[in-house]
């Protein structure tokens, strides 16, 4: 028995990094996890042997029809959707100034970082409205607040996620549904572990705490945001930047 006992939680990007850490914790807390990822092998390695996982959904979540069909199946089988956490995301090409940006790359990043979070939330909201309960969490980024030079697609798509969170929070504020986002700076994932020390220092020098956030810190905050206890905060972007963003 845990804090999320019996709750149905959909997590995208569940096979790696922050999505994987959140998914594992939700399982440990008793949730019925529906894990979405495009990477079949990583998803099966992470959860295939775990009998308490409700469903593994291998799919490209930028396909709206596939997302809608999957959510419908989940509700038919599991009865409801209590939680949606959108973790799938890509940076696209970096180190590229606006005059060099390829429009196709910009579209691709928006399609995953912004549109897929719209597709998943549009698909679950009718069921949450029926139940008059739901918790939605979108993964944004400090880049969406500050705008990282050389990362137009990523920064603008995360700013769009923050905008959508504000809109959705207000739209459903008189229901039992809350919609929030989380904006991390650098989190210590295997990707960061593999970077040269100098590059990591360049990133952490901008963080007043002078370090990366940990996966545990990201997971702790995410689980609070999607908990029943988080009942009076909606439309908000929670900070996770070691003091870099104080707004
Ligand atoms: N790691 C950080 O330091 C950091 C900082 C700020 C924001 N974020 C945001 O947090 C989220 C998670 O980041 P992460 O570092 O854990 O990422 P990650 O790269 O470790 O994991 C992303 C997952 O998304 C999956 N994915 C990619 N395209 C997909 C698609 N079309 N359909 C379904 N799944 C797809 C990948 O297979 C992967 O498993 C992202 O939205 C990212 O932008 C991360």
Automatic annotation (TrEMBL):
Q: Which GO terms describe its molecular function?
A: oxidoreductase activity, acting on the CH-OH group of donors, NAD or NADP as acceptor; quinone binding
Q: Record's PROSITE patterns? A: ADH_SHORT
Magnesium among the record's keywords?
no
Keywords per UniProt: Oxidoreductase
- Identify the Pfam families for this entry: adh_short
Q: Does the keyword Transmembrane apply?
A: no
> Which GO BP annotation is one of this protein's?
fatty acid biosynthetic process
The entry's family comment says: Belongs to the short-chain dehydrogenases/reductases (SDR) family.
Q: What protein name is recorded for this chain?
A: 3-oxoacyl-[acyl-carrier protein] reductase
Organism (species):
Flavisolibacter ginsengisoli DSM 18119
